[in-house]
Amino acid sequence: MALVPYERNCLPSLSKLHDTSAEFFFASHHFCISQDWNRLGVAAVVWDAAVVLCMYLELGQVELNGRTAIELGAGTGLVGMVAALLGAKVTITDRAPALDFLQANVRKNVPPEKQDAIVVSELTWGENLERYKAGGYDLILGADIVYLEDTFPALLRTLEHLSSNKTVVLLACRIRYERDQNFLDILQQRFILQEVHYDAQRDIHIYRALKTKQEL
């Protein structure tokens, strides 16, 4: 969601994020994702949380075929594209400055016969939510979107607006700071929250949230 450029030398452990592309194989499909760290920062690279969430979707733990999904803070759009190739109809969202880049990745990576399954749309959390049907999605996806404390209230409002009592929210994140855990604690006051997967190699957690108590 945040468009924050970083200097290459200040984060040597993240040097792969400065590559102009990253390649993956999900949903029986090869992805070559364009990256542009220097221009769009965190919004234009593939983070480990996105990779782990794609792996989780491939496991079939969540029904995707014929479902409506929305990805928040999509960045490169990898998660949303994988969900679409696994059978969902997906709205992939991010802030306006990232949309051209996001749309280009969708055009480049999604087969023509699947292009109609994806809509790229502007969504700044907490703003103009009436453009999106309240409770209108079966699945809400977010990869590494829990990291800026100032955005937490708007993110929570957005999740509440988009969710019905049957909506499944999947958040993949690395818990870097106390504030990240604080957001999960607040989310748990509004949703039934459960950790459903942990990738120890990448230190990525996946949380599943539901508005009402259902079988998790």
- Total count of helical runs of at least 4 residues: 6
Question: Can you tell me the overall shape?
Answer: globular
Ends apart, CA distance between termini: 28 Å
Low-pLDDT sequence parts: 1-13
List the secondary-structure elements in sequence, H or E.
EEHHEHEHEEHEHEE
Strand content: 25-35%
Q: Quick one: biggest sheet?
A: 7 strands, mixed
Structural class: alpha/beta
Enumerate the strands of the largest sheet in spatial order, edge to edge or round the barrel: 5-4-3-6-7-9-8
> What is the fold named in CATH at topology level?
Rossmann fold
CATH class: Alpha Beta
Number of domains as seen in the coordinates: 1
The total strand number stands at 9
Task: Compose a concise summary of this entry.
This protein has 216 residues and is α/β, with parallel strands linked by helices. Helix content is 27%, strand content 25%. The chain has a seven-stranded mixed sheet, with helices on both faces.
Keywords:
single chain; 216 residues; alpha/beta; Rossmann fold; seven-stranded mixed sheet; two-stranded antiparallel ribbon; disordered N terminus; cytoplasm; SAM-dependent_MTases_sf; S-adenosyl-L-methionine; methyltransferase activity
